[in-house]
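Need a sequence for this fold. Nothing fancy.
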């Protein structure tokens, strides 16, 4: 029998199939992926390092929508804002993947490269190294929480006659609740980051180092 011209199995198909299962069910197993692809479970292990390997393939696939080139923009806060907006859009497309990906260590090289560039951006801007990961983790929490919020109903509260203030606030807010909340939170985050940077630049030891 002639071998098929298109391989039955490759890393791209494994990733796409696992992501589809996550999008539908919020989870996957390696045997489920194998069944969906019409192969034996053992066949997958020729292409991936177990379930953790599949998770990283899913991570890379979801993260393809993140604009890594945004981190080359200037100034640093514009770069971080554009990166955050693309990050949110990429994960908002697959909200059920967020709990899976955010509770497993990041090992995917292409995803780690994003963080390497983000760390470099903040260090070049002048942030002390001990501030960098708290800032990036805080931004990630904001982005992913908002990505989940985009998947929620527009009307998340159902006011009653006993909650007239809530009803009025909801009516005044208008549509686009999740987007407005993200814009507000991101602006607040960036303003705080600028304040941190200004405080760092004003430190006497920094001033002495720069003048020396």
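Here you go.
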């Amino acid at each position: 029998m002639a071998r098929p011209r298109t391989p039955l199995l490759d890393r791209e198909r494994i990733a796409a199939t696992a992501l589809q299962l996550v999008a539908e069910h919020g989870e996957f197993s390696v045997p489920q992926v194998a069944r969906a692809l019409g192969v034996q479970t053992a066949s997958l292990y020729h292409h991936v390092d177990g379930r953790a390997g599949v998770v990283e393939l899913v991570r890379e696939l979801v993260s393809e929508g993140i604009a890594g080139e945004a981190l080359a923009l200037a100034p640093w806060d514009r770069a971080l804002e554009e990166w955050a907006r693309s990050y949110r859009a990429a994960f908002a497309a697959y909200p059920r993947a967020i709990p899976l990906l955010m509770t497993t260590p990041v090992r995917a090289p292409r995803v780690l490269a994003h963080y390497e560039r983000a760390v470099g951006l903040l260090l070049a801007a002048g942030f002390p190294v001990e501030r960098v990961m708290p800032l990036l983790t805080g931004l990630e929490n904001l982005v992913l929480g908002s990505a989940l919020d985009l998947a929620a109903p527009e009307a998340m509260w159902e006011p009653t006659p006993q909650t007239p203030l809530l009803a009025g606030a909801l009516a005044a807010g208008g549509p686009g609740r999740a987007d407005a909340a993200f814009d507000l939170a991101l602006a607040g985050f960036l303003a705080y980051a600028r304040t941190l940077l200004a405080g760092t630049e004003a430190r006497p030891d920094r001033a002495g180092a720069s003048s020396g």
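For context: The chain has two domains: 11-62, 66-200.
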